[in-house]
Amino acid sequence: MALKNPADGRTRSWVQIFIVFGLCCFFYILGAWQRSGFGKGDSIALEITKQGADCNIIPSLNFETHHAGDVGNADESEKPKSFKPCPPRYVDYTPCQDQKRAMTFPRNNMIYRERHCPREEDKLHCLVPAPEGYVTPFPWPKSRDYVPYANAPYKALTVEKAIQNWIQYEGNVFRFPGGGTQFPQGADKYIDQLADVIPITNGTVRTALDTGCGVASWGAYLWSRNVLTMSFAPRDSHEAQVQFALERGVPAVIGVLGTIKMPYPSRAFDMAHCSRCLIPWGANDGMYLKEVDRVLRPGGYWILSGPPINWRINYKAWQRPKEQLEEEQRKIENVAKLLCWEKKHEKGEIAIWQKRVNDDSCRGRQDDSQVNFCKAGEANDVWYKKMDECITPYPDVSSAGGVAGGELKPFPERLYDVPPRIASGSVPGVSVETFQEDNNIWKKHVSAYKKINRLIDSGRYRNILDMNAGLGGFAAAIDSPKLWVMNVMPTIAAKDTLGVIYERGLIGIYHDWCEAFSTYPRTYDLIHAHGLFSLYKDKCNVEDILLEMNRILRPEGAVIFRDEVDVLIKVKKITTGMRWDTKMIDHEDGPLVPEKVLVAVKQYWTVGGNTTSTP
C-alpha cells in the first residue's frame, strides 16, 4: 500500500513513512536530551530536518495497524461504556471484607473477618465515590501526624482510645500523637526500648510485620529509622484503623490471623511485632506462632508487648485472673521452645525472642514427637490455603554458623545486591545475569516515567502500588524516602519472586487481581501495571480489574500502564467511561517497539458531584 503526499505529489510506501516518522521522533527526543545535557543530537536532528524529512504526514497514521491484534480490529466508532457512580453508602466499600457479608460466616477463629469476596453476580459495576469534601492527603512527613477529617470521618477511636493517645480530633483534621495501647508516651520512646535489644538502626533490620496494628503508629515511626513495616488489622469494630494508617502514608492492608495463611512468603521479615493485638498466640497448638515463624527470617526477632508478659507484676493493672495469664504465657513459652526461638529480653510488659539462624542448634527437636514439620516446597503456597499446625523447616546450610536461606547485607546495600534465592538458583529461570539486566531495564523505564510525570519524586505520590512486581525492579528504581511501594505478586504469575523482593529490603503481598484488593477505597496515589492485562487475558474481566483500580486510586491519582499496544487500546477505551484522562506514549526506545505506555489521571469528583478534568 502507498500514500500520496498532497504537498509534492510524491508517493511513499508505508515502510518509508514509518522510517521517517521514527527518525523524526528519535531526533526530536535526542534534541530534547541535548538541551537537558543527556545527548548530542541537536545538530544531527537539524541536519535531517534540512534534508527534507517530511513529518507532517504522520498524524494520519493509525498505529494499531502495524501491531494488529484482536482489539485492533474492534469498532473504534462504538461509543465507550459510561460507568455511573455507586450510591453514597459505598463510599468506603471493601468488597472482600464487607461487614454485612462477614456476619454470615462463623465467628470461631476469626473466620468471619477473613476475605469473603462477592459472587460474580453480586459484584458492583459502578465507580466508588469519594466522600464530600475529600482532599489530597498531606505530604509526608506531615501526613504521619495529620489526616483530613473529610477523608475518613470516623470519630469513634478518638473516644475509645482517648487515654492511649492513638488519635485526637482537632477542627477539620485528626491528629496522631504517636501513642498506642502499649506506648501511650509515644512510639519513638517505645522503639528506643526495642533498639536496646534489636539492631534497628544499622540496616540489619529492614522489613517488619505488625500484626493487629491499630492505626500503625509503630510502623509510622520506624520509617525514620529506615525500617519498612507491613501492618495489618481486620475491618472490625475499630472502624477505619487501616484506612487511617494508609491516609497517614503508612503501608497497611486489611487482614487477620484466622484460619488462612498470611499472604506473605517464607523468610520475609526481619522483625515481627504484636502490641496488645489480641491474638491468642498459644491457642490451636501454637498455630499462629508457627505461622509467624514461617514468615520470619532466620535470625529475625519477635516482639510481644502486653498480656500475658510478666503477668505476676501486671495482672492487677490488666484486671485479669492470675491463673489465666499464667496459662497463656506458659503456652507461648512452650511453643517458642518448640520453634527453637531464644528469649533475648523480658522487662516490664515487653518480651523479645530471636529465631535461630539455622537448624543446627535445634537438632534435638528432630526426635521430638511433638514436632510436626511441614512438607518441603509448601512454604510459599499460601493463597486461600489453610494455616498448618506444623513447623516450616529451615533451608539447608553448608556450615554450622551459616544463615539458612543465605545472609543478607544491611539495607540499602541489599537493594541491589544479588538476593540469596537467586544466587542459590532457587528461582527457576532467574539467573544473576537476568536479575542485573532487569535492574538496568527498570532504571531506564523509571527514568522515562519521571520525564513523563515530573511529580513522581516530588512527594506528591506517597503510597504506590505495583500490580505485577516481578523482581521488584520498579520499586528499587523508584526507591526514595518520600514514598513506598506495595509490590504485588499475582498468584497466577509464572514465577513466584516475592521472596526475592523481600530479600531486597522491599515489601509486598500475594494477590489474585480477579478479586478485590484488601484495602479501603482511595488508598494509593500512583498505580503501576506492567504486563498485568496481558497476564490476565482470558482469566477474568478486564473491566472488573479496572473498576478495582479506580476504587483504590485516590482522586487525581495517576496510573502507569505498560503493555502491548493492542491490550492498551482496549484498556484506554474502557477508562474513557471511568472519568479518567489518558494519553498513550511510545516506548522509550521508539515507536517501532510494540510495547507502549498508557498514562492516566483519575478526575476529582465526590458524592456531592464536584468534578474536575485534567486538560
TrEMBL record:
It is found in: Endomembrane system; Membrane. The chain crosses the membrane at residues 13-33. It is a single-pass membrane protein; Single-pass type II membrane protein. Keywords: Glycoprotein, Membrane, Methyltransferase, Signal-anchor, Transferase, Transmembrane, Transmembrane helix. Its EC number is 2.1.1.-. Belongs to the methyltransferase superfamily. This is Methyltransferase.
